[in-house]
Amino acid sequence: MFRLVRANAISVRGLTRMTMMSTAPAQQPQASASGDILRGFSAISSRLTDRFKDAGLGANFDNLVSSVKTFLPANRDFTLTKITESIMDPQNASSSAIAKTEGYLYFDPRSANARGTMPQASQVRQQQGLPGALNGVGRGIEASFGQKRQAYNEAIVFTVGGGSMDEYGNLQDWAKRTGTGANASTTLKRRVVYGSTELVNAEDFLSKELGRLGGESV
Amino acid sequence: MTGVIPIIRCPKQGAAEVIAAKLDRKLRDHVLNSKDNLFSGNDQRNSSSSGQTATRPVLIIVDRNVDLIPMLSHSWTYQSLVHDVLKMHLNRITVEVPVDAEDSSKGSTKRAYDLNASDFFWSKNASSPFPNVAEDIDAQLTKYREDAAEVTKKTGTSSLEDLQNDTNASAQHLKDAITLLPELRERKATLDMHMNILSALLQGIKDRQLDNYYQMEEAILKQTKVQMLEFIKDGTKGTEPTDKLRLFIIWFLSVDQEISRTDMDRFEEALKEIGADIQPLTYIKQ
After folding, report:
1. What CATH number is associated with residue A204?
2. Does residue A189 sit in the same domain as residue A171?
3. What is the rounded CA–CA span in Å between residue A133 and residue A109?
Protein backbone atom coordinates (compact mmCIF):
# COMPACT_ATOMS: atom_id res chain seq x y z
CA MET A 1 0.00 0.00 0.00
CA PHE A 2 2.66 2.47 0.95
CA ARG A 3 5.23 1.86 -1.65
CA LEU A 4 7.68 4.38 -2.87
CA VAL A 5 5.58 7.21 -4.21
CA ARG A 6 6.32 9.38 -7.13
CA ALA A 7 7.84 12.72 -6.36
CA ASN A 8 5.58 14.95 -8.33
CA ALA A 9 6.75 18.45 -7.89
CA ILE A 10 10.45 17.96 -8.13
CA SER A 11 12.83 15.61 -9.86
CA VAL A 12 14.30 12.73 -7.93
CA ARG A 13 17.75 13.98 -8.62
CA GLY A 14 16.96 17.48 -7.46
CA LEU A 15 15.34 16.13 -4.34
CA THR A 16 18.26 13.90 -3.53
CA ARG A 17 20.68 16.74 -3.83
CA MET A 18 18.42 19.00 -1.84
CA THR A 19 18.15 16.62 1.05
CA MET A 20 21.59 15.17 0.71
CA MET A 21 23.61 16.08 3.71
CA SER A 22 26.30 13.48 3.53
CA THR A 23 29.62 15.14 3.89
CA ALA A 24 32.79 13.88 2.38
CA PRO A 25 34.03 10.87 4.29
CA ALA A 26 36.07 11.95 7.22
CA GLN A 27 39.54 10.69 6.72
CA GLN A 28 40.53 8.88 9.83
CA PRO A 29 43.90 7.64 10.79
CA GLN A 30 43.66 4.07 9.60
CA ALA A 31 47.21 2.91 9.90
CA SER A 32 46.69 0.70 12.90
CA ALA A 33 43.34 -0.47 11.68
CA SER A 34 44.65 -1.77 8.40
CA GLY A 35 47.13 -3.82 10.35
CA ASP A 36 44.26 -5.43 12.18
CA ILE A 37 42.52 -6.22 8.98
CA LEU A 38 45.53 -7.88 7.52
CA ARG A 39 45.78 -10.02 10.54
CA GLY A 40 42.16 -10.96 10.21
CA PHE A 41 42.60 -11.92 6.65
CA SER A 42 45.67 -13.96 7.08
CA ALA A 43 43.80 -15.75 9.81
CA ILE A 44 40.74 -16.46 7.78
CA SER A 45 42.72 -17.15 4.69
CA SER A 46 44.47 -20.05 6.30
CA ARG A 47 41.11 -21.58 6.99
CA LEU A 48 39.08 -20.45 4.05
CA THR A 49 41.75 -20.89 1.43
CA ASP A 50 42.04 -24.50 2.38
CA ARG A 51 38.44 -24.83 1.55
CA PHE A 52 38.77 -22.86 -1.64
CA LYS A 53 41.77 -24.59 -3.02
CA ASP A 54 39.64 -27.38 -4.33
CA ALA A 55 37.23 -24.92 -5.83
CA GLY A 56 40.08 -23.24 -7.66
CA LEU A 57 39.69 -20.10 -5.62
CA GLY A 58 42.86 -20.22 -3.64
CA ALA A 59 45.07 -18.59 -6.22
CA ASN A 60 42.93 -15.49 -6.42
CA PHE A 61 42.46 -15.17 -2.74
CA ASP A 62 45.60 -13.18 -2.13
CA ASN A 63 44.55 -10.68 -4.75
CA LEU A 64 41.22 -10.25 -3.10
CA VAL A 65 42.82 -9.82 0.26
CA SER A 66 45.23 -7.18 -0.93
CA SER A 67 42.54 -5.24 -2.72
CA VAL A 68 40.22 -5.43 0.25
CA LYS A 69 42.61 -4.58 3.01
CA THR A 70 42.97 -0.92 2.22
CA PHE A 71 39.53 0.26 3.11
CA LEU A 72 37.51 0.43 6.22
CA PRO A 73 34.05 1.90 6.14
CA ALA A 74 34.44 5.62 6.52
CA ASN A 75 32.77 7.20 9.43
CA ARG A 76 30.06 8.93 7.48
CA ASP A 77 26.51 9.66 8.42
CA PHE A 78 23.78 9.13 5.87
CA THR A 79 21.09 11.67 5.17
CA LEU A 80 18.57 9.91 7.35
CA THR A 81 21.08 9.74 10.18
CA LYS A 82 21.62 13.47 9.88
CA ILE A 83 17.90 14.06 9.89
CA THR A 84 17.61 11.96 13.02
CA GLU A 85 20.49 13.76 14.66
CA SER A 86 19.05 17.16 13.91
CA ILE A 87 15.81 16.14 15.61
CA MET A 88 17.17 14.13 18.51
CA ASP A 89 20.14 16.30 19.30
CA PRO A 90 19.65 19.76 17.81
CA GLN A 91 22.42 21.23 19.93
CA ASN A 92 25.14 19.17 18.31
CA ALA A 93 23.71 18.80 14.84
CA SER A 94 25.10 20.79 11.96
CA SER A 95 23.17 23.92 11.09
CA SER A 96 22.61 22.69 7.56
CA ALA A 97 20.91 19.56 8.87
CA ILE A 98 18.76 21.58 11.23
CA ALA A 99 17.74 23.87 8.41
CA LYS A 100 16.49 20.84 6.50
CA THR A 101 14.31 19.50 9.26
CA GLU A 102 13.16 22.77 10.73
CA GLY A 103 10.11 22.74 8.54
CA TYR A 104 9.14 19.22 9.62
CA LEU A 105 5.64 18.99 11.00
CA TYR A 106 5.10 18.38 14.67
CA PHE A 107 2.38 16.11 15.96
CA ASP A 108 1.79 15.60 19.63
CA PRO A 109 -1.08 13.17 20.07
CA ARG A 110 -1.30 14.09 23.72
CA SER A 111 -1.60 17.80 23.29
CA ALA A 112 -4.73 19.60 22.25
CA ASN A 113 -2.66 22.17 20.42
CA ALA A 114 -0.48 20.27 18.04
CA ARG A 115 -3.27 18.76 16.06
CA GLY A 116 -2.93 17.55 12.55
CA THR A 117 -4.95 20.19 10.77
CA MET A 118 -4.52 23.88 10.49
CA PRO A 119 -5.72 26.70 8.27
CA GLN A 120 -3.45 27.73 5.48
CA ALA A 121 -3.03 31.27 6.76
CA SER A 122 -1.52 30.39 10.09
CA GLN A 123 0.76 27.91 8.43
CA VAL A 124 2.18 30.68 6.33
CA ARG A 125 2.52 32.94 9.32
CA GLN A 126 4.43 30.34 11.23
CA GLN A 127 6.73 29.59 8.39
CA GLN A 128 8.05 33.09 8.61
CA GLY A 129 9.58 32.12 11.89
CA LEU A 130 8.34 34.77 14.27
CA PRO A 131 8.93 33.32 17.69
CA GLY A 132 6.10 35.29 19.21
CA ALA A 133 3.58 34.04 16.75
CA LEU A 134 4.71 30.45 17.03
CA ASN A 135 3.86 29.47 20.54
CA GLY A 136 0.32 28.93 21.47
CA VAL A 137 -1.21 29.39 18.07
CA GLY A 138 -4.08 26.98 18.29
CA ARG A 139 -3.87 23.62 16.60
CA GLY A 140 -0.58 24.37 14.99
CA ILE A 141 1.49 21.58 13.62
CA GLU A 142 4.53 23.60 12.75
CA ALA A 143 7.09 23.06 15.43
CA SER A 144 7.47 26.01 17.76
CA PHE A 145 10.87 27.36 18.60
CA GLY A 146 11.00 25.33 21.77
CA GLN A 147 9.72 22.22 20.09
CA LYS A 148 12.42 22.47 17.48
CA ARG A 149 15.13 22.62 20.10
CA GLN A 150 13.73 19.79 22.15
CA ALA A 151 16.12 16.85 22.47
CA TYR A 152 15.23 13.16 22.60
CA ASN A 153 16.99 10.07 23.86
CA GLU A 154 14.73 7.65 22.06
CA ALA A 155 13.56 7.67 18.51
CA ILE A 156 11.67 5.46 16.13
CA VAL A 157 12.74 6.19 12.58
CA PHE A 158 10.41 4.97 9.91
CA THR A 159 10.88 5.20 6.17
CA VAL A 160 7.91 4.99 3.85
CA GLY A 161 8.74 3.10 0.68
CA GLY A 162 11.55 0.80 1.69
CA GLY A 163 14.39 0.49 4.16
CA SER A 164 17.96 -0.64 3.83
CA MET A 165 20.28 -2.64 6.03
CA ASP A 166 23.00 -0.16 5.39
CA GLU A 167 20.92 2.74 6.60
CA TYR A 168 19.90 0.81 9.68
CA GLY A 169 23.53 0.09 10.49
CA ASN A 170 24.50 3.67 9.89
CA LEU A 171 21.83 4.90 12.31
CA GLN A 172 22.87 2.42 14.98
CA ASP A 173 26.51 3.41 14.58
CA TRP A 174 25.61 7.02 15.16
CA ALA A 175 23.48 6.17 18.19
CA LYS A 176 26.30 4.15 19.68
CA ARG A 177 28.93 6.74 18.87
CA THR A 178 27.10 9.71 20.29
CA GLY A 179 25.22 7.98 23.08
CA THR A 180 27.80 6.80 25.52
CA GLY A 181 31.53 6.86 25.27
CA ALA A 182 31.78 10.01 23.22
CA ASN A 183 31.55 12.00 26.39
CA ALA A 184 32.40 10.17 29.58
CA SER A 185 30.54 12.58 31.81
CA THR A 186 27.17 11.78 30.30
CA THR A 187 25.43 8.53 30.91
CA LEU A 188 23.00 9.33 28.16
CA LYS A 189 21.93 6.30 26.24
CA ARG A 190 20.52 6.85 22.80
CA ARG A 191 18.07 4.37 21.44
CA VAL A 192 17.02 4.34 17.82
CA VAL A 193 14.56 1.87 16.43
CA TYR A 194 14.52 1.59 12.65
CA GLY A 195 11.45 0.60 10.76
CA SER A 196 10.18 0.62 7.26
CA THR A 197 7.30 -0.51 5.12
CA GLU A 198 9.64 -3.18 3.81
CA LEU A 199 13.30 -4.07 4.06
CA VAL A 200 14.40 -4.62 0.51
CA ASN A 201 17.78 -5.39 -0.93
CA ALA A 202 19.13 -3.33 -3.76
CA GLU A 203 18.24 -5.78 -6.48
CA ASP A 204 14.60 -5.99 -5.45
CA PHE A 205 14.42 -2.27 -4.91
CA LEU A 206 15.64 -1.69 -8.46
CA SER A 207 13.37 -4.17 -10.14
CA LYS A 208 10.27 -3.96 -8.00
CA GLU A 209 10.13 -0.35 -6.87
CA LEU A 210 12.13 1.81 -9.23
CA GLY A 211 11.39 -0.40 -12.20
CA ARG A 212 7.69 -0.24 -11.55
CA LEU A 213 7.79 3.52 -11.12
CA GLY A 214 9.84 3.80 -14.29
CA GLY A 215 7.23 1.77 -16.12
CA GLU A 216 4.43 3.98 -14.84
CA SER A 217 6.01 7.18 -15.98
CA VAL A 218 6.37 6.16 -19.61
CA MET B 1 10.44 2.91 24.72
CA THR B 2 6.94 1.62 24.75
CA GLY B 3 4.26 2.89 26.97
CA VAL B 4 4.79 6.54 26.17
CA ILE B 5 3.04 8.40 23.42
CA PRO B 6 5.67 9.59 20.97
CA ILE B 7 5.95 12.97 19.40
CA ILE B 8 5.76 12.61 15.65
CA ARG B 9 7.91 14.57 13.22
CA CYS B 10 7.71 14.29 9.47
CA PRO B 11 8.44 16.35 6.37
CA LYS B 12 5.61 18.29 4.80
CA GLN B 13 3.71 16.70 1.94
CA GLY B 14 3.93 13.24 0.60
CA ALA B 15 3.07 9.89 2.07
CA ALA B 16 4.92 10.54 5.32
CA GLU B 17 2.63 13.42 6.21
CA VAL B 18 -0.48 11.43 5.38
CA ILE B 19 0.65 8.59 7.62
CA ALA B 20 1.69 10.90 10.42
CA ALA B 21 -1.66 12.68 10.43
CA LYS B 22 -3.56 9.38 10.44
CA LEU B 23 -1.44 7.98 13.21
CA ASP B 24 -1.84 11.15 15.24
CA ARG B 25 -5.60 10.88 14.98
CA LYS B 26 -5.53 7.21 15.82
CA LEU B 27 -3.46 7.74 18.92
CA ARG B 28 -5.74 10.54 20.09
CA ASP B 29 -8.81 8.40 19.62
CA HIS B 30 -7.15 5.54 21.39
CA VAL B 31 -6.24 7.59 24.44
CA LEU B 32 -9.64 9.28 24.58
CA ASN B 33 -11.80 6.24 24.06
CA SER B 34 -10.19 3.50 26.04
CA LYS B 35 -9.67 3.96 29.72
CA ASP B 36 -7.09 1.27 30.07
CA ASN B 37 -5.10 2.11 26.99
CA LEU B 38 -1.64 1.17 25.79
CA PHE B 39 -0.13 4.24 27.31
CA SER B 40 -1.98 4.57 30.59
CA GLY B 41 0.79 3.15 32.75
CA ASN B 42 3.87 5.14 31.94
CA ASP B 43 2.24 8.10 30.42
CA GLN B 44 0.62 9.38 33.55
CA ARG B 45 3.76 9.04 35.53
CA ASN B 46 5.69 10.96 32.97
CA SER B 47 3.22 13.75 32.56
CA SER B 48 3.36 14.52 36.25
CA SER B 49 7.10 14.93 36.30
CA SER B 50 8.67 18.12 35.09
CA GLY B 51 11.22 16.51 32.81
CA GLN B 52 8.57 14.82 30.76
CA THR B 53 9.72 15.97 27.37
CA ALA B 54 13.09 14.34 27.76
CA THR B 55 11.61 10.91 28.31
CA ARG B 56 9.18 10.91 25.43
CA PRO B 57 10.38 9.24 22.26
CA VAL B 58 10.15 10.87 18.89
CA LEU B 59 8.75 9.08 15.89
CA ILE B 60 10.36 10.32 12.71
CA ILE B 61 8.53 9.36 9.54
CA VAL B 62 10.14 10.15 6.20
CA ASP B 63 9.53 9.32 2.58
CA ARG B 64 12.05 7.08 0.91
CA ASN B 65 12.72 9.89 -1.52
CA VAL B 66 14.76 11.87 1.00
CA ASP B 67 17.67 9.62 0.11
CA LEU B 68 17.62 6.75 -2.34
CA ILE B 69 21.34 6.10 -2.17
CA PRO B 70 21.41 3.75 0.85
CA MET B 71 18.93 1.53 -0.97
CA LEU B 72 21.39 0.94 -3.77
CA SER B 73 24.85 1.37 -2.31
CA HIS B 74 27.31 -1.46 -1.85
CA SER B 75 28.33 -1.82 1.73
CA TRP B 76 31.02 -3.62 3.61
CA THR B 77 29.31 -4.65 6.81
CA TYR B 78 28.36 -8.24 7.50
CA GLN B 79 24.63 -7.62 7.63
CA SER B 80 24.59 -5.53 4.46
CA LEU B 81 26.60 -8.10 2.53
CA VAL B 82 24.36 -10.91 3.72
CA HIS B 83 21.33 -8.91 2.69
CA ASP B 84 22.76 -8.04 -0.70
CA VAL B 85 24.65 -11.16 -1.71
CA LEU B 86 22.58 -13.87 -0.03
CA LYS B 87 19.21 -12.17 -0.47
CA MET B 88 18.18 -12.23 3.13
CA HIS B 89 14.44 -12.11 3.49
CA LEU B 90 12.72 -11.95 6.88
CA ASN B 91 16.02 -12.89 8.52
CA ARG B 92 16.33 -16.04 6.43
CA ILE B 93 19.03 -16.78 3.92
CA THR B 94 19.88 -19.68 1.67
CA VAL B 95 23.48 -20.68 1.22
CA GLU B 96 25.08 -23.20 -1.07
CA VAL B 97 27.15 -25.53 1.03
CA PRO B 98 29.52 -28.10 -0.41
CA VAL B 99 28.47 -31.64 0.38
CA ASP B 100 32.00 -32.56 1.18
CA ALA B 101 34.44 -29.82 2.13
CA GLU B 102 37.35 -31.96 1.00
CA ASP B 103 35.98 -32.84 -2.38
CA SER B 104 34.25 -30.18 -4.45
CA SER B 105 33.31 -32.64 -7.17
CA LYS B 106 30.49 -33.97 -5.02
CA GLY B 107 28.59 -30.74 -5.65
CA SER B 108 26.72 -28.61 -3.19
CA THR B 109 23.40 -28.48 -1.43
CA LYS B 110 21.25 -25.55 -0.47
CA ARG B 111 20.82 -24.88 3.17
CA ALA B 112 18.52 -22.31 4.79
CA TYR B 113 19.67 -20.40 7.81
CA ASP B 114 17.89 -18.04 10.15
CA LEU B 115 19.83 -15.12 11.50
CA ASN B 116 18.48 -13.53 14.62
CA ALA B 117 19.48 -11.82 17.83
CA SER B 118 19.82 -15.08 19.75
CA ASP B 119 22.79 -15.98 17.58
CA PHE B 120 25.75 -14.71 19.58
CA PHE B 121 28.04 -14.40 16.58
CA TRP B 122 25.48 -12.55 14.51
CA SER B 123 24.51 -10.07 17.19
CA LYS B 124 28.16 -9.31 17.81
CA ASN B 125 29.30 -9.02 14.21
CA ALA B 126 26.29 -8.00 12.15
CA SER B 127 27.40 -4.39 11.92
CA SER B 128 31.12 -5.06 11.66
CA PRO B 129 33.04 -4.69 8.42
CA PHE B 130 33.57 -7.97 6.60
CA PRO B 131 37.32 -8.32 7.31
CA ASN B 132 36.74 -7.92 11.05
CA VAL B 133 34.11 -10.65 10.92
CA ALA B 134 36.61 -12.90 9.23
CA GLU B 135 39.02 -12.21 12.03
CA ASP B 136 36.44 -12.91 14.68
CA ILE B 137 35.29 -16.23 13.24
CA ASP B 138 38.85 -17.42 13.48
CA ALA B 139 39.20 -16.25 17.08
CA GLN B 140 35.92 -17.90 18.01
CA LEU B 141 36.87 -21.18 16.35
CA THR B 142 40.16 -21.21 18.21
CA LYS B 143 38.39 -20.52 21.45
CA TYR B 144 35.94 -23.30 20.77
CA ARG B 145 38.72 -25.73 20.09
CA GLU B 146 40.44 -24.81 23.34
CA ASP B 147 37.25 -25.19 25.34
CA ALA B 148 36.52 -28.52 23.74
CA ALA B 149 40.06 -29.72 24.38
CA GLU B 150 39.76 -28.67 27.99
CA VAL B 151 36.67 -30.80 28.48
CA THR B 152 38.24 -33.76 26.73
CA LYS B 153 41.38 -33.50 28.80
CA LYS B 154 39.46 -33.48 32.06
CA THR B 155 37.20 -36.36 31.27
CA GLY B 156 39.35 -38.38 28.95
CA THR B 157 40.90 -41.40 30.56
CA SER B 158 43.40 -43.62 28.94
CA SER B 159 43.09 -46.61 31.19
CA LEU B 160 40.94 -48.14 33.86
CA GLU B 161 43.53 -47.42 36.50
CA ASP B 162 42.90 -43.75 36.09
CA LEU B 163 39.33 -44.28 37.03
CA GLN B 164 40.07 -46.45 39.99
CA ASN B 165 42.54 -44.03 41.45
CA ASP B 166 40.22 -41.15 41.74
CA THR B 167 36.65 -42.22 41.18
CA ASN B 168 35.01 -39.19 42.75
CA ALA B 169 36.99 -36.68 40.76
CA SER B 170 36.30 -38.47 37.48
CA ALA B 171 32.61 -38.57 38.21
CA GLN B 172 32.65 -34.86 38.88
CA HIS B 173 34.47 -34.16 35.62
CA LEU B 174 32.04 -36.30 33.70
CA LYS B 175 29.17 -34.42 35.25
CA ASP B 176 30.75 -31.11 34.26
CA ALA B 177 31.27 -32.37 30.76
CA ILE B 178 27.66 -33.36 30.42
CA THR B 179 26.52 -29.88 31.37
CA LEU B 180 29.07 -28.21 29.10
CA LEU B 181 28.51 -30.33 26.03
CA PRO B 182 25.18 -28.89 24.86
CA GLU B 183 26.60 -25.38 24.95
CA LEU B 184 29.71 -26.45 23.10
CA ARG B 185 27.76 -28.28 20.48
CA GLU B 186 25.44 -25.36 19.93
CA ARG B 187 28.37 -22.99 19.65
CA LYS B 188 30.02 -25.24 17.12
CA ALA B 189 26.88 -25.35 15.02
CA THR B 190 26.62 -21.56 15.04
CA LEU B 191 30.26 -21.10 14.09
CA ASP B 192 30.00 -23.68 11.32
CA MET B 193 26.99 -21.89 9.96
CA HIS B 194 28.82 -18.57 9.90
CA MET B 195 31.80 -20.21 8.30
CA ASN B 196 29.52 -21.36 5.49
CA ILE B 197 27.96 -17.94 5.22
CA LEU B 198 31.34 -16.23 5.08
CA SER B 199 32.55 -18.60 2.39
CA ALA B 200 29.44 -17.90 0.32
CA LEU B 201 29.93 -14.17 0.83
CA LEU B 202 33.54 -14.37 -0.21
CA GLN B 203 32.53 -16.17 -3.35
CA GLY B 204 29.91 -13.53 -4.06
CA ILE B 205 32.33 -10.69 -3.42
CA LYS B 206 34.79 -12.26 -5.78
CA ASP B 207 32.29 -13.01 -8.55
CA ARG B 208 30.70 -9.60 -8.43
CA GLN B 209 33.89 -7.77 -7.48
CA LEU B 210 32.00 -5.97 -4.77
CA ASP B 211 35.19 -4.53 -3.31
CA ASN B 212 35.58 -2.53 -6.53
CA TYR B 213 32.09 -1.12 -6.27
CA TYR B 214 32.46 -0.31 -2.63
CA GLN B 215 35.65 1.55 -3.33
CA MET B 216 34.12 3.48 -6.23
CA GLU B 217 31.11 4.52 -4.19
CA GLU B 218 33.24 5.72 -1.31
CA ALA B 219 34.70 8.31 -3.64
CA ILE B 220 31.72 8.70 -5.95
CA LEU B 221 32.06 12.45 -6.33
CA LYS B 222 35.53 12.06 -7.75
CA GLN B 223 34.39 9.94 -10.68
CA THR B 224 34.18 11.68 -14.02
CA LYS B 225 31.80 10.97 -16.85
CA VAL B 226 34.53 9.28 -18.83
CA GLN B 227 35.59 7.09 -15.93
CA MET B 228 32.01 6.03 -15.29
CA LEU B 229 31.42 5.11 -18.89
CA GLU B 230 34.65 3.15 -19.02
CA PHE B 231 33.78 1.31 -15.84
CA ILE B 232 30.37 0.33 -17.16
CA LYS B 233 31.89 -0.95 -20.40
CA ASP B 234 34.70 -2.76 -18.63
CA GLY B 235 33.97 -6.47 -18.90
CA THR B 236 36.20 -7.39 -15.97
CA LYS B 237 34.13 -5.65 -13.30
CA GLY B 238 32.01 -8.42 -11.99
CA THR B 239 29.26 -10.66 -13.30
CA GLU B 240 26.20 -8.71 -12.24
CA PRO B 241 24.91 -5.94 -14.53
CA THR B 242 22.69 -4.57 -11.77
CA ASP B 243 25.78 -3.68 -9.78
CA LYS B 244 26.78 -1.33 -12.55
CA LEU B 245 23.30 0.09 -12.76
CA ARG B 246 23.36 0.71 -9.00
CA LEU B 247 26.70 2.42 -9.22
CA PHE B 248 25.52 4.59 -12.08
CA ILE B 249 22.35 5.68 -10.28
CA ILE B 250 24.33 6.57 -7.17
CA TRP B 251 26.74 8.59 -9.27
CA PHE B 252 23.93 10.29 -11.16
CA LEU B 253 22.16 11.25 -7.95
CA SER B 254 25.31 12.45 -6.22
CA VAL B 255 27.34 14.48 -8.68
CA ASP B 256 26.66 18.10 -9.25
CA GLN B 257 27.51 18.38 -12.91
CA GLU B 258 24.94 18.57 -15.65
CA ILE B 259 24.40 15.34 -17.55
CA SER B 260 23.29 16.19 -21.05
CA ARG B 261 20.73 14.27 -23.06
CA THR B 262 23.43 12.80 -25.27
CA ASP B 263 25.52 11.73 -22.27
CA MET B 264 22.50 10.06 -20.75
CA ASP B 265 21.79 8.21 -23.98
CA ARG B 266 25.37 7.02 -24.06
CA PHE B 267 25.13 5.68 -20.52
CA GLU B 268 21.82 3.98 -21.21
CA GLU B 269 23.21 2.41 -24.32
CA ALA B 270 26.22 1.07 -22.41
CA LEU B 271 24.05 -0.29 -19.62
CA LYS B 272 21.71 -1.95 -22.08
CA GLU B 273 24.64 -3.55 -23.82
CA ILE B 274 25.81 -5.31 -20.68
CA GLY B 275 22.32 -6.59 -20.07
CA ALA B 276 21.00 -4.29 -17.37
CA ASP B 277 17.33 -3.49 -17.21
CA ILE B 278 17.24 0.28 -17.52
CA GLN B 279 13.58 0.70 -16.68
CA PRO B 280 14.43 2.10 -13.21
CA LEU B 281 16.34 4.93 -14.87
CA THR B 282 13.15 6.34 -16.29
CA TYR B 283 12.06 7.19 -12.81
CA ILE B 284 15.44 8.31 -11.57
CA LYS B 285 16.03 10.83 -14.32
CA GLN B 286 12.66 12.53 -14.09
Report:
1. 3.40.50.1910
2. yes
3. 22
Please indicate if any CB of chain B lies within 8 Å of the CB of A109: yes
Backbone angles phi, psi at B74, to 5 degrees: -95, 130
In a domain, A53, yes or no: yes
Exposure string of B1-21, with b = 16+ CB inside 10 Å and e = fewer, is: eeebbbbbbbbeebbbbebbb
CB contact B9 to A (< 8 Å): yes
Mutate to test the interface with B, among A61, A110, A149 (most CBs of B within 10 A): A110
C-alpha to C-alpha distances, A102 to A1, A13, A141, B99, B185, nearest whole angstrom:
28, 22, 12, 57, 54
How do B7-10 and A105-107 pair as beta strands? antiparallel
- In 3-state terms chain B splits into helix, strand, coil percentages (rounded to 5) of 65, 10, 25
pTM to 2 decimals? Answer: 0.75
Q: How many domains does chain A have?
A: 2
Q: Which domain holds residue A85?
A: 75-93+150-218
Residue contact A160–B63, C-beta within 8 A: yes
CB contact under 8 A, B135 and A41: yes
Size of interface A-B (CB pairs under 8 A): 315
- Whether residue A156 sits in one domain with residue A203: yes
Average pLDDT over residues A152-180: 90
A160: in domain: yes
The domain segmentation of chain B, as residue ranges, is 7-66, 72-208, 211-284
CATH among 3.90.830.10, 3.90.1150.30, 3.40.50.720, 2.60.40.10 for B72-208: 3.90.830.10
- Whether the CB-CB separation of B77 and B130 falls below 8 Å is answered with yes
Q: Do A78 and B254 touch (CB under 8 A)?
A: no
Which value does ipTM take for this structure? Answer: 0.82
Q: pLDDT in tens for each of the 286 residues of chain B?
A: 457 889 999 998 889 999 999 999 888 888 887 766 677 655 444 444 434 444 789 999 999 989 999 999 998 899 999 999 998 888 889 888 877 666 667 778 888 999 988 999 999 999 898 888 988 998 999 999 999 888 877 776 555 555 566 667 777 777 878 888 889 999 999 999 999 999 999 889 989 999 889 888 888 888 899 999 999 998 888 888 999 999 999 999 988 888 888 999 999 999 999 998 888 888 888 7
pLDDT at B189: 93
